């Protein structure tokens, strides 16, 4: 069981540094110092992402949870360095990873957001028409609910998986109609999403009799619907966008579309920009409203 941190982040990181030195696992002094610096940052950030205990308490599962949440704030290079530092600790200090095992590479959402741009409704329609039915439905779902690629794996009825306890504004989903589902996103946060009624009907037509175990980018999921998701859907989206439009900003652009459309809807309904931004942040599953600002460019 994870314990609450009793040492400072600096003390936790230096404790791991000493253990790595004794293990002779790292030859480069520069690499060791970089790992120590990153692990200190990990220890500082863990409480914010709801991960209790000290860095030595991290498991491969909570490490992935941390990296997914952290990827909303930082670029790929820094995220990879934190992954490597945690991986070294799990392998050579706490023994929670076997020799040769690796943590999956988590994509930086911050970097994706900076490079992606919004699609119009007509463009999304053309892209979906260029996909198979399975992937087209996922494109429509992602556009309608602001879903990440891997979240499509996790779509569940509310009766099967409830949302994490987080602050919720009354303005959430206001002005839209549909069926509430949940998805599990970055940092293990499970949130409610609103699926329009017609899309919910199509989704239920693809419900699996028995949930399917699937692995995507090294992460295991239990998928309840036969729809496109993760890397395969993302690749399908990019290829279809190139066919239909002769260009692609990637599937992440659908979250930009959602953010921008919802901001316009809410502000046109009389909500202040701050309230609208907080609302969209909650709907997208961001930890802070300022992350959502990137999607409004």
From TrEMBL:
Keyword Repeat listed: no
Keyword Chloroplast listed: no
PROSITE patterns associated with the record: TYR_RECOMBINASE
Keywords: DNA recombination
Domain Tyr recombinase intervals: 113-297
Name of this protein: Phage integrase family protein
Protein species of origin: Pseudoalteromonas lipolytica
């Amino acid at each position: 069981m994870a314990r609450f941190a009793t040492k400072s982040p600096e003390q936790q990181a230096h404790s791991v540094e000493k253990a790595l030195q004794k293990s002779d696992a790292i030859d480069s002094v520069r690499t060791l110092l970089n790992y120590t610096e990153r692990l200190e940052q990990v220890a500082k950030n863990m409480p914010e992402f709801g991960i209790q205990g000290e860095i030595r308490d991290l498991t491969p599962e909570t490490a992935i949870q941390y990296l997914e949440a952290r990827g909303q704030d930082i670029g790929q290079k820094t995220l990879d360095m934190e992954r490597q530092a945690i991986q070294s600790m799990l392998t050579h200090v706490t023994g929670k990873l076997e020799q040769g095992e690796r943590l999956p590479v988590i994509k930086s959402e911050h970097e994706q957001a900076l490079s992606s741009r919004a699609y119009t409704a007509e463009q999304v329609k053309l892209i979906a028409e260029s996909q198979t039915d399975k992937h087209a439905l996922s494109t429509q779902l992602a556009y309608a609910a602001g879903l990440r690629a891997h979240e499509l794996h996790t779509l569940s009825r509310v009766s099967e998986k409830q949302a994490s306890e987080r602050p919720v504004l009354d303005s959430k989903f206001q002005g839209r109609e549909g069926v509430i589902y949940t998805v599990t996103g970055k940092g293990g946060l499970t949130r409610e999403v609103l699926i329009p009624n017609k899309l919910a009907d199509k989704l239920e037509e693809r419900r699996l009799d028995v949930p399917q175990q699937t692995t995507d980018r090294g992460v295991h999921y239990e998928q309840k619907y036969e729809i496109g998701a993760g890397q395969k859907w993302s690749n399908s989206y990019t290829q279809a966008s190139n066919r239909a439009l002769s260009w692609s900003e990637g599937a992440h652009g659908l979250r930009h579309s959602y953010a921008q459309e919802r901001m316009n809807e809410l502000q046109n309904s009389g909500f202040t920009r701050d309230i609208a931004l907080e609302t969209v942040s909650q709907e997208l599953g961001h930890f802070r409203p300022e992350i959502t600002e990137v999607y409004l460019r």
